[in-house]
Design a protein that fits this description.
Layout lengths: L1 E6 L4 E2 L5 E9 L11 H5 L15 E5 L6 E20 L4 E2 L11 E9 L3 E5 L11 E20 L4 E2 L4 E6 L1
Parallel strand pairs: 1-5, 2-6, 3-7, 4-8, 5-9, 6-10, 7-11
Length: 171
């Protein structure tokens, strides 16, 4: 995911109020397991884990094995998310140039990058009435990798007149 907000090189911008150049990249976490929009949402929940893999987790890997004597199971969940959020004022841009300093507002250049995830990997087995256990061996791996960049900047040669200046990058 990539988002860029900017005032271009050599641009001239004048405002009587505040000026905000803001870029936001967001990967939200939302639980939508309880949403029932149709029959497929009901059928999705008719499995041994009650469908929690859809609508509860961002990424999911599950394994289940059965055997007469011994069961072996393994699961791998590998997730990579890369986001870039850029906000800038270009080189040579003129922001409120020539305006009365008492009539200009605040200038904000803000880049934000926010990722919220819930990830699962495991070996889950549910035994219902009359089931009996045997020997079992299982293993699970969860690898979640974020490559997030947030950059807020004012390029060289930009002339700025503002009451207050905020240049902020959050990730």
């Amino acid at each position: 995911n990539k988002a860029t907000a900017y005032i271009g090189d050599g641009a001239s911008v004048g405002a009587a109020g505040d000026i905000t150049v803001e870029s936001n990249v967001r990967v939200p976490y939302a639980i939508d397991w309880l949403q029932l929009k149709g029959p497929s949402d009901v059928f999705d929940k008719l499995n041994p884990n009650l469908g929690i893999q859809n609508g509860t987790f961002t990424s999911w890997a599950q394994s289940l094995a059965t055997g007469a004597n011994t069961g072996l199971a393994g699961s791998v969940n590998h997730l990579e998310i890369g986001n870039t959020s850029n906000a800038y004022i270009g080189a040579g841009a003129l922001i409120n140039a020539g305006k009365n300093p008492n009539s200009v507002g605040d200038l904000r250049v803000i880049a934000r990058n926010n990722v919220d995830t819930v990830n699962f990997s495991g070996n889950i087995g549910v035994t219902f009435f009359g089931g009996k256990g045997a020997n079992g061996v299982g293993g699970a791996y969860v690898g979640v990798f974020y490559d997030n960049v947030a950059s807020a900047r004012i390029m060289s040669g930009a002339a700025i007149s503002a009451n207050t200046l905020t240049v902020r990058a959050d990730t």
